[in-house]
């Protein structure tokens, strides 16, 4: 028998908790990176009943809660609605999130989230057993930055999705958190390398300085490691990507020109950082951030 020593047997700290806000602080997406998906799935079910929560999604071991900001009264009931998000309040460059729960749900609502990476400070009550518990955490306010990239490889060398992930992972930092990576299937045009797939990276940045440093670093890495002279890199700084839905649909249904892609980007607040032919697919990728299970199917459409 192997005897084990548990430092804190009733706490499983989340790997990270981040809050991305819209420009008016009316909506936020709380992104929780869990170390125990079973517990997070339980939270996802119960939190979905909170009046502030508009939508929930899970991608791997990350749970994403789209919420409206504000405060609500939770009516906690064992087994049926045993935990929830009570408030999401934006104050200057910080987001204050309050969770509450009964029993094991209270454990998750307090120390498990309080000890997550990205949390600046916290307050929590005693939890566990049959008690109701409440925990409040404060995290940096972030804005979403989407980077579409395509055409970094040739028919002989490379793969865009691997290069982009490795670059993003190296640049992950408190000021610019690497949130998601999505492969996007495009219409198989004649000029494709093989599978005609582009990539979108999602970051949460705390301020413009962090964003600019991130983007300069990504472009520098692409210039260094791309084996293609037609690399495209485009950037959209927005809470959602609705402005490029129409273009993405067109790019997944037929062949488009580089001139049309550049014109569309200029008309819809998308920055072009590298203007090779890859801008065509890079622009189409933006619409599919954080939808990796859908984006790989050509027949899928964004709702």
From TrEMBL:
Signal peptide: none
Residues in TiaS-like TCKD domain copies: 147-271
InterPro entries, sorted: Methan_mark_11, TiaS-like_TCKD
Pfam families, A to Z: TiaS_TCKD (PF22641)
PANTHER family to which the protein is assigned, alphabetical: DUF1743 DOMAIN-CONTAINING PROTEIN (PTHR40705:SF2), TRNA(ILE2) 2-AGMATINYLCYTIDINE SYNTHETASE TIAS (PTHR40705)
NCBIfam families: methan_mark_11
Protein name: TiaS-like TCKD domain-containing protein
């Amino acid at each position: 028998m192997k005897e084990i020593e548990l430092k804190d047997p009733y706490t499983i700290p989340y790997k990270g908790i981040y809050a991305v806000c819209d420009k008016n602080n009316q909506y936020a997406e709380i992104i929780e990176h869990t170390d125990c998906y079973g517990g997070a799935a339980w939270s996802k079910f119960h939190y979905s009943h909170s009046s502030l929560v508009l939508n929930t999604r899970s991608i791997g071991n990350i749970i994403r809660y789209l919420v409206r900001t504000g405060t609500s009264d939770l009516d906690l009931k064992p087994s049926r609605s045993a935990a929830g998000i009570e408030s999401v309040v934006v104050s200057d460059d910080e987001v204050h999130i309050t969770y509450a729960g009964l029993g094991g749900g209270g454990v998750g609502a307090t120390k498990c989230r309080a000890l997550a990476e990205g949390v600046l400070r916290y307050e929590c009550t005693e939890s566990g057993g049959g008690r109701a518990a409440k925990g409040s955490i404060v995290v940096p306010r972030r804005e979403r930055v989407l980077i579409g990239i395509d055409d970094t490889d040739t028919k002989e060398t490379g793969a865009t999705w691997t290069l982009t992930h490795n670059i993003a992972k190296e640049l992950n930092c408190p000021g610019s958190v690497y949130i998601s990576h999505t492969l996007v299937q495009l219409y198989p045009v004649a000029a494709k390398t093989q599978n005609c797939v582009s990539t979108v990276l999602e970051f949460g940045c705390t301020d413009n300085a962090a964003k600019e440093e991130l983007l300069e670093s990504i472009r520098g890495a692409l210039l260094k490691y791309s084996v293609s002279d037609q690399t495209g890199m485009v950037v959209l700084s927005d809470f959602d990507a609705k402005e490029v839905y129409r273009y993405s649909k067109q790019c997944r249904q037929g062949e488009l020109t580089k001139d049309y892609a550049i014109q569309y980007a200029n008309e819809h607040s998308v920055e072009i950082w590298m203007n090779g032919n890859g801008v065509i697919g890079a622009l189409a990728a933006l619409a599919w951030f954080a939808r990796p299970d859908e984006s790989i199917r050509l027949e899928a459409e964004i709702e």
